Amino acid sequence: MSDFRNAPEAAPPGVPVSSGTPGEQGPRTSGDPVPHARAKGEPRFPEGPKPDPAGSHFERRIRSFQPRRSRVTTGQAEALRRLWPQWGLDIDGQRVIDLAELFGNDHPVVLEIGFGMGEATAQMAAADPDTNIVAVDVHTPGQGNLLNLAEHHGLSNVRVGNGDAIILLREMLAPDSLDGLRVYFPDPWPKKRHHKRRLIQPAFLDLAATRLKPGALVHCATDWEPYAEQMLDVLTAHPEFENTQPGGGFAPRPAHRPLTRFEGQGLDKGHVVNDLLFRRVQR
Ligand SMILES: C[S@@+](CC[C@H](N)C(=O)[O-])C[C@H]1O[C@@H](n2cnc3c(N)ncnc32)[C@H](O)[C@@H]1O
Questions:
Q1: Percent of the chain whose pLDDT exceeds 70
Q2: CA of 27 to the centre of ligand 1 (A)
Q3: Alpha-carbon torsion 225, 230, 233, 238, what sign?
Q4: What does pLDDT average to in each consecutive run of 10 residues of the chain (283 residues)?
Q5: Residue 167 Cβ contacting ligand 1 at under 6 Å
Q6: Which residues are annotated as a binding site for substrate?
Q7: CA distance 128 to 118
Q8: What PROSITE patterns does this protein map onto (predicted)?
Q9: What 8-state DSSP symbol labels residue 262?
Q10: The ligand 1 atom nearest the CA atom of 187
């Protein structure tokens, strides 16, 4: 059976990165790459994702993610360099993407926002090769992991987006271009003063509705119950979405959604997981 957890690690020569995820690093051995200090302005991954692809071109806004310095393993770094030209997509906000050209076919396209380490994304892509997935995150190690999984499993139906999904939706996707939207375990931002950072709120849904085709499915899941209630409230109140559940409320977890890494952590803490399945209304 295929393993969709950490992608297989290759040991490329001379890669200036850590040799493990935080807290998992063993002692350095002679076979490890020698770290080298990058010169000022030298890109971390010359052929890979840009550090801030949209740069200051777009106004600063409240972000749903926390920029974090992330350790990248040797295998992830190598994937970012080698595989980015084939699977990567920098979200620079500079052009509207032709999705048929991007994937080389006109299969339905689903956007996944916040794929984390990408295991669930890869699993869903492998299980449904006739659906294209644009998977977006700002998390560099996860991008490397998903690239490795894409190569390992030969996933021609995945593209790995680097940057803010809001800029992708607003600047780079045409109206009515998406057949679905997946948001699995978005950052819950539990503190009240941070609630404004939560992704699923009315303004986000206004934008998403314009990019989703009528009938397109919006699938969200969270292990943070107050956020689940908020999602249910804002999706139910939004005129462009209707609940797929006849009586309203949360949906049973669909069999096609794999367990995600964050979900597993939430379950370990005894959290309750809620799925929401809404549809963009047909007019
Ligand atoms: C809590 S993690 C969940 C990851 C994964 N879905 C899982 O369940 O394991 C949320 C992810 O969403 C990403 N994220 C949040 N807001 C984003 C945005 N506006 N654009 C792209 N990625 C975003 C974060 O970087 C983070 O990796």
A1: 86
A2: 31
A3: negative
A4: 69 35 38 56 79 77 82 95 96 97 98 98 98 97 98 98 96 98 98 97 98 98 98 98 97 97 98 98 89
A5: no
A6: 191, 223, 260-263
A7: 15
A8: SAM_MT_TRMB
A9: H
A10: 1
CA-wise closest residue to 162 among 88, 97, 102, 81? 88
d(CA 220, CA 201): 12
Evaluate: CB of 279 within 6 angstroms of ligand 1.
no
187 has catalytic annotation: yes
Predicted confidence (pLDDT) per residue in 17-34, tens digit: 433 333 333 444 444 444
Domains by residue range for the chain, with CATH: 73-280 (3.40.50.150)
User: CB count, 10 Å around CB of 119?
Assistant: 23
Q: Helix, strand or coil for residue 90?
A: strand
Q: Is the CB of 241 under 6 A from ligand 1?
A: no
Rounded Cα gap, residues 25 and 28, in angstroms = 8
Per the residue annotation, which of 98, 176, 179, 187 is the catalytic one? 187
